[in-house]
Amino acid sequence: MLILKRLFDVTASLLLMALFSWLFILIALMIRLDSKGPVFFVQIRVGRHGKSFPMLKFRTMYDGTERKWQAPSKEGALSYKFQDQGDDRITPLGRILRRSSLDELPQLWNVLRGQMSLVGPRPEIPEMVALYPDYAHARHRMRPGITGLAQVMGRGDLTLAETLRWDMEYCKNWTIGLDFKIIWKTLSAVLRRRGAY
What we know:
This protein is mainly α. The chain has one domain. The chain is built from 8 helices and 4 strands. It has a two-stranded antiparallel ribbon with strand order 1-2. It has a two-stranded parallel ribbon with strand order 3-4. β3 (117-119), α5 and β4 (145-147) form a beta-alpha-beta unit.
């Protein structure tokens, strides 16, 4: 079954990259006009089997401001929420890209390379993974996804504990059918901009 998942990932990512190539170019031009800095934001994330990889996004923050982020304490990690509506590091265009989820489009390249899947637990930075309770590392049995069960169940409105609970449920109950349901619900969540800041 995982072979079918990978086959779908490769086929769909190639198709989507070709279909939205014009949008890639347009967004890249808009980013260059909006603020100084590179078009793409590259960040190390933890993927399948705990291996790190460089994840791509369209840059949505002012260049260099990601270094201002501080990881929560071990004690407060499970109640931590990943997105902040008042984050002043985000550019005006970046807010639009985030709310529409268009900043995630470059991750189709990560999918094509086999580092990610269209659907799976979202990959996290090593600093956050280091704060996971032991049971949560089982989520790394699956390739991380552009979207996932946690994203359609609340996205940035969820605490880390809630996100991990949905991730573990996905890994435990994964089927191809579940992936298609999540993709369908993702389209609805993106249109409603639920949990996107």
